[in-house]
Amino acid sequence: MHKEHTLTKNQQIIFDLIDKSPEPMKAYSILFNVQKKGIKAPLQVYRALDKLVEIGKIHKIESRNAFIACHNSSCQVANATAFSICEICEKVTEISSVGLSKYLANFKDKDGMKYSKYNLEFFGLCKKCTLK
Amino acid sequence: MHKEHTLTKNQQIIFDLIDKSPEPMKAYSILFNVQKKGIKAPLQVYRALDKLVEIGKIHKIESRNAFIACHNSSCQVANATAFSICEICEKVTEISSVGLSKYLANFKDKDGMKYSKYNLEFFGLCKKCTLK
DNA sequence: TTTAAATTGTTATAATATAACATCATGTAA
DNA sequence: TTACATGATGTTATATTATAACAATTTAAA
Asked: Domains of chain B by range and CATH?
């Protein structure tokens, strides 16, 4: 199990915003949305984001420079993330497949290098966009 | 099989530079290195990079905003990329594992969404850095 | 309770990437 | 050949993403 982290004020404000968002949020969009709550500078946002990523409450979608809340039960997967991304509507879904995570967690390359972490992003069309 | 692409002058200059580099190169480092060859503006670099990525001659390491040449025999894997990244020395290696690529190419999520593309980045310590 | 560690606030700036527009080159179809 | 479409180029300006540096404050442990 993982340690519970008490979020600080800024971290909580920013987490709540991302958590409520139906889509990944970008840093400066977050900044814009929390300015009324007293968070005025990019660094305040980035620092909170860094911490939230570190403790697994949110994940960064690297190909989009955007952040989404982790919805895996207990956010234990900060080091093993997989997402599906629709290339039309940009909908992003976190994939939770036991098979996939087992396969990747145990994957070893030719040199026997063992990994402590991975991030996987799948691209394609979501159901809705396929039908259009 | 894939169509052979004749690279344009700018594309060739930039590809050659990346191809010779032992490590992933960042866009502005590329720009700096090709200025003597007449490529003066960021856009010229980004346009060539976009094209080279599109045709599979190079790949973007999303978590690093950097580019490496594809070393898979015929660059057929523009849509299916996997890399290992050392978190200390930042060495990046393209993984070519038939098992892995088969597994991922056939992966379907719960909704049956089929993917046309994926990018996987593993993080850990390379051999050298493990021994330190 | 004082010390270490983490967080905050702030200004400035670095690094990454694209918009908009004019021009030039190349292929191809009438 | 001409004219048309397409893609590539060159250029200036600007948008977007992210970090450096430093001072002050809060929090959590020893």
From this structure: 9-69 (1.10.10.10), 80-131 (3.30.1490.190)
Q: Which nucleotides of D are covered by protein (CB under 7 A)?
A: 8-14, 16-21, 28
Residues 50-89 of A with CB under 7 A from strand D: 50, 65
* pLDDT band of A76, cuts 50, 70, 90: low
The pLDDT tens digits of the residues spanning B39-48 come to 999 999 999 9
Q: How far is A63 from B59, CA to CA, in rounded Å?
A: 12
Residues of chain B above pLDDT 90, percent: 73
What pairing do the DSSP bridges indicate for beta strands A58-61 and A66-69?
Answer: antiparallel
Instruction: State the pLDDT at residue A109.
Output: 85
A8 CA → D26 C1’, Å: 11
Whether B124 and A104 lie within 8 Å, measured CB to CB: no
Do the chains contact at B124 and A114, CB–CB below 8 Å?
yes
pTM of the model: 0.93
Compute the average pLDDT of residues A66-88.
83
Q: Give helix then strand counts, H and E, for chain A.
A: 5, 5
A103, A117, A124 ranked by CB distance to B124: nearest: A117
Q: Is the CB of A42 under 7 A from strand C?
A: yes
The minimum CA-CA distance between B26 and chain A, rounded to whole Å, is 15
DSSP string, B104-127: HHT---TT---EEEEEEEEEE--H
Cβ-contact B125, A111 below 8 angstroms: no
pLDDT, position B27 = 98
